[in-house]
Hints:
Helix 2 packs parallel to helix 3. Helix 4 links the parallel strand 4 (77-82) and strand 5. By secondary structure, the protein is of the alpha/beta class. The longest helix is centred in the last third of the chain and has 15 residues, at 175-189. It has two domains: 2-124, Response regulator (Rossmann fold, 3-Layer(aba) Sandwich), CATH 3.40.50; 130-209, Winged helix-like DNA-binding domain superfamily/Winged helix DNA-binding domain (Arc Repressor Mutant, subunit A), CATH 1.10.10.10. Strands 2-1-3-4-5 form a five-stranded parallel beta sheet, sandwiched between helices. A two-stranded antiparallel ribbon has the order 6-7. It is globular, with a radius of gyration of 17 Å. It has ten helices and seven strands.
Amino acid sequence: MISVAIVDEQRDVREGLQNLLNSAEGFSCIATYSDGESALKNIRRVRPDVILMDIDLPIMSGVECIKSIKNHLPDIEIVILTHLTDDDHIFQALSAGASGYLSKSIFPSKLLSAITEVVNGGAPLNMDVARRVVMSFNKNKVEFSQISKRESEVLELLCEGHNYKNIARTLFISPNTVRFHLKNIYRKLHVNSRHEAVLKVTSGEGVRNF
Protein backbone atom coordinates (compact mmCIF):
# COMPACT_ATOMS: atom_id res chain seq x y z
CA MET A 1 0.00 0.00 0.00
CA ILE A 2 1.41 3.38 -1.06
CA SER A 3 0.52 6.12 1.41
CA VAL A 4 0.07 9.61 -0.02
CA ALA A 5 -0.37 13.09 1.44
CA ILE A 6 -1.78 16.00 -0.57
CA VAL A 7 -0.79 19.66 -0.28
CA ASP A 8 -2.99 21.95 -2.37
CA GLU A 9 -4.76 25.23 -1.66
CA GLN A 10 -7.91 24.24 -3.56
CA ARG A 11 -10.36 22.17 -1.56
CA ASP A 12 -11.98 20.58 -4.62
CA VAL A 13 -8.55 19.44 -5.86
CA ARG A 14 -7.70 17.93 -2.47
CA GLU A 15 -11.02 16.12 -2.28
CA GLY A 16 -10.81 14.88 -5.87
CA LEU A 17 -7.31 13.49 -5.38
CA GLN A 18 -8.28 11.96 -2.05
CA ASN A 19 -11.24 10.17 -3.63
CA LEU A 20 -9.10 8.96 -6.53
CA LEU A 21 -6.42 7.54 -4.26
CA ASN A 22 -8.75 5.91 -1.77
CA SER A 23 -10.76 4.24 -4.53
CA ALA A 24 -7.66 2.86 -6.31
CA GLU A 25 -6.22 -0.48 -5.28
CA GLY A 26 -2.84 -0.20 -3.57
CA PHE A 27 -3.14 3.49 -2.64
CA SER A 28 -4.22 5.36 0.48
CA CYS A 29 -4.54 9.09 1.05
CA ILE A 30 -3.57 9.54 4.69
CA ALA A 31 -3.57 13.35 4.97
CA THR A 32 -4.46 16.56 3.12
CA TYR A 33 -3.23 20.10 3.74
CA SER A 34 -4.19 23.46 2.27
CA ASP A 35 -0.76 25.07 2.67
CA GLY A 36 2.90 24.24 3.18
CA GLU A 37 3.03 25.43 6.76
CA SER A 38 0.30 23.00 7.84
CA ALA A 39 2.06 20.21 5.98
CA LEU A 40 5.37 20.90 7.71
CA LYS A 41 3.73 20.85 11.14
CA ASN A 42 2.18 17.42 10.60
CA ILE A 43 4.12 15.53 7.93
CA ARG A 44 6.69 14.14 10.36
CA ARG A 45 3.86 12.47 12.29
CA VAL A 46 2.04 10.91 9.33
CA ARG A 47 5.16 10.08 7.25
CA PRO A 48 3.62 9.28 3.84
CA ASP A 49 5.54 7.48 1.13
CA VAL A 50 4.72 10.23 -1.36
CA ILE A 51 3.55 13.84 -1.17
CA LEU A 52 1.55 15.32 -4.05
CA MET A 53 2.11 19.06 -3.84
CA ASP A 54 1.14 22.14 -5.83
CA ILE A 55 4.10 24.48 -6.21
CA ASP A 56 1.77 27.50 -6.04
CA LEU A 57 0.91 27.56 -2.33
CA PRO A 58 -0.18 30.29 0.14
CA ILE A 59 1.89 31.35 3.18
CA MET A 60 4.95 29.33 2.13
CA SER A 61 5.98 28.66 -1.46
CA GLY A 62 6.07 25.12 -2.76
CA VAL A 63 9.83 25.37 -3.30
CA GLU A 64 10.40 26.39 0.34
CA CYS A 65 8.14 23.58 1.50
CA ILE A 66 10.02 20.99 -0.59
CA LYS A 67 13.36 22.12 0.84
CA SER A 68 12.12 21.98 4.44
CA ILE A 69 10.54 18.55 4.08
CA LYS A 70 13.58 17.06 2.32
CA ASN A 71 15.90 18.52 4.98
CA HIS A 72 14.01 16.77 7.76
CA LEU A 73 12.55 13.74 5.96
CA PRO A 74 14.76 13.01 2.93
CA ASP A 75 13.20 9.60 2.24
CA ILE A 76 9.77 11.02 1.45
CA GLU A 77 9.22 11.40 -2.30
CA ILE A 78 7.65 14.69 -3.40
CA VAL A 79 5.84 14.97 -6.72
CA ILE A 80 4.71 18.39 -7.90
CA LEU A 81 1.19 18.46 -9.35
CA THR A 82 0.46 21.92 -10.70
CA HIS A 83 -0.78 24.10 -13.52
CA LEU A 84 2.56 25.95 -13.64
CA THR A 85 4.85 24.27 -16.18
CA ASP A 86 7.32 27.02 -17.05
CA ASP A 87 11.05 26.31 -16.97
CA ASP A 88 11.75 28.35 -13.83
CA HIS A 89 9.22 26.52 -11.67
CA ILE A 90 10.22 23.10 -13.03
CA PHE A 91 13.93 23.51 -12.33
CA GLN A 92 13.39 25.27 -8.98
CA ALA A 93 11.25 22.35 -7.82
CA LEU A 94 13.69 19.70 -9.03
CA SER A 95 16.59 21.63 -7.54
CA ALA A 96 14.80 21.80 -4.19
CA GLY A 97 14.45 18.01 -4.15
CA ALA A 98 11.18 17.14 -5.91
CA SER A 99 11.21 13.67 -7.46
CA GLY A 100 8.73 14.46 -10.23
CA TYR A 101 6.79 17.28 -11.88
CA LEU A 102 3.33 16.76 -13.37
CA SER A 103 0.61 18.95 -14.85
CA LYS A 104 -2.84 18.95 -13.27
CA SER A 105 -4.20 18.03 -16.70
CA ILE A 106 -2.72 14.53 -16.33
CA PHE A 107 -5.16 11.61 -16.66
CA PRO A 108 -6.00 9.91 -13.32
CA SER A 109 -4.58 6.57 -14.47
CA LYS A 110 -1.32 8.28 -15.47
CA LEU A 111 -1.13 9.99 -12.09
CA LEU A 112 -1.45 6.67 -10.27
CA SER A 113 1.24 5.19 -12.51
CA ALA A 114 3.49 8.17 -11.78
CA ILE A 115 3.10 7.70 -8.03
CA THR A 116 4.02 4.03 -8.38
CA GLU A 117 6.96 4.97 -10.58
CA VAL A 118 8.43 7.41 -8.07
CA VAL A 119 8.20 4.82 -5.29
CA ASN A 120 10.11 2.42 -7.56
CA GLY A 121 12.93 4.91 -8.10
CA GLY A 122 11.67 6.80 -11.14
CA ALA A 123 11.35 10.53 -11.72
CA PRO A 124 7.94 11.01 -13.36
CA LEU A 125 7.57 14.00 -15.66
CA ASN A 126 4.69 15.02 -17.92
CA MET A 127 5.57 14.67 -21.58
CA ASP A 128 5.84 18.44 -22.05
CA VAL A 129 7.94 18.77 -18.89
CA ALA A 130 10.19 15.88 -19.93
CA ARG A 131 10.59 17.52 -23.33
CA ARG A 132 11.81 20.73 -21.69
CA VAL A 133 14.37 18.82 -19.61
CA VAL A 134 15.62 16.85 -22.60
CA MET A 135 15.73 20.02 -24.73
CA SER A 136 17.95 21.56 -22.10
CA PHE A 137 20.13 18.44 -22.18
CA ASN A 138 20.40 18.63 -25.98
CA LYS A 139 20.74 22.40 -26.07
CA ASN A 140 23.89 22.24 -24.02
CA LYS A 141 24.90 19.23 -26.15
CA VAL A 142 27.10 18.46 -23.25
CA GLU A 143 29.74 15.86 -22.72
CA PHE A 144 31.35 15.35 -19.37
CA SER A 145 34.97 14.51 -20.06
CA GLN A 146 34.98 11.08 -18.41
CA ILE A 147 31.46 9.84 -19.22
CA SER A 148 31.23 6.96 -21.70
CA LYS A 149 28.71 6.68 -24.54
CA ARG A 150 26.67 4.11 -22.62
CA GLU A 151 26.70 6.24 -19.48
CA SER A 152 25.54 9.21 -21.56
CA GLU A 153 22.61 7.13 -22.87
CA VAL A 154 21.67 6.15 -19.32
CA LEU A 155 21.95 9.78 -18.21
CA GLU A 156 19.70 11.06 -21.01
CA LEU A 157 17.01 8.48 -20.17
CA LEU A 158 17.33 9.50 -16.53
CA CYS A 159 16.69 13.10 -17.60
CA GLU A 160 13.52 11.91 -19.34
CA GLY A 161 12.26 10.57 -16.03
CA HIS A 162 12.67 6.83 -16.63
CA ASN A 163 13.22 4.50 -13.68
CA TYR A 164 15.89 1.79 -13.53
CA LYS A 165 13.66 -0.91 -15.05
CA ASN A 166 12.61 1.25 -18.00
CA ILE A 167 16.21 2.30 -18.69
CA ALA A 168 17.28 -1.34 -18.60
CA ARG A 169 14.49 -2.35 -20.97
CA THR A 170 15.24 0.49 -23.41
CA LEU A 171 18.97 -0.22 -23.54
CA PHE A 172 18.61 -4.03 -23.40
CA ILE A 173 20.69 -4.31 -20.24
CA SER A 174 19.92 -5.55 -16.74
CA PRO A 175 18.74 -3.27 -13.89
CA ASN A 176 21.94 -4.15 -12.03
CA THR A 177 23.97 -2.88 -15.00
CA VAL A 178 21.94 0.35 -14.93
CA ARG A 179 22.76 0.76 -11.23
CA PHE A 180 26.43 0.13 -12.00
CA HIS A 181 26.43 2.84 -14.70
CA LEU A 182 24.59 5.28 -12.43
CA LYS A 183 27.07 4.68 -9.64
CA ASN A 184 29.87 5.58 -12.05
CA ILE A 185 27.94 8.61 -13.34
CA TYR A 186 27.38 9.93 -9.82
CA ARG A 187 31.06 9.47 -9.01
CA LYS A 188 32.21 11.21 -12.18
CA LEU A 189 29.77 14.11 -11.79
CA HIS A 190 30.46 14.41 -8.06
CA VAL A 191 26.77 14.04 -7.17
CA ASN A 192 24.87 11.73 -4.83
CA SER A 193 21.45 11.26 -6.45
CA ARG A 194 19.54 11.16 -9.72
CA HIS A 195 18.11 14.62 -8.92
CA GLU A 196 21.58 16.14 -8.59
CA ALA A 197 22.75 14.42 -11.78
CA VAL A 198 19.78 15.75 -13.81
CA LEU A 199 20.26 19.25 -12.44
CA LYS A 200 23.95 19.25 -13.19
CA VAL A 201 23.29 18.26 -16.80
CA THR A 202 20.40 20.67 -17.40
CA SER A 203 22.21 23.60 -15.81
CA GLY A 204 25.29 22.95 -17.91
CA GLU A 205 27.48 23.09 -14.80
CA GLY A 206 30.97 21.77 -15.29
CA VAL A 207 30.37 20.81 -18.92
CA ARG A 208 32.14 21.42 -22.16
CA ASN A 209 30.62 21.63 -25.62
CA PHE A 210 31.33 19.14 -28.38
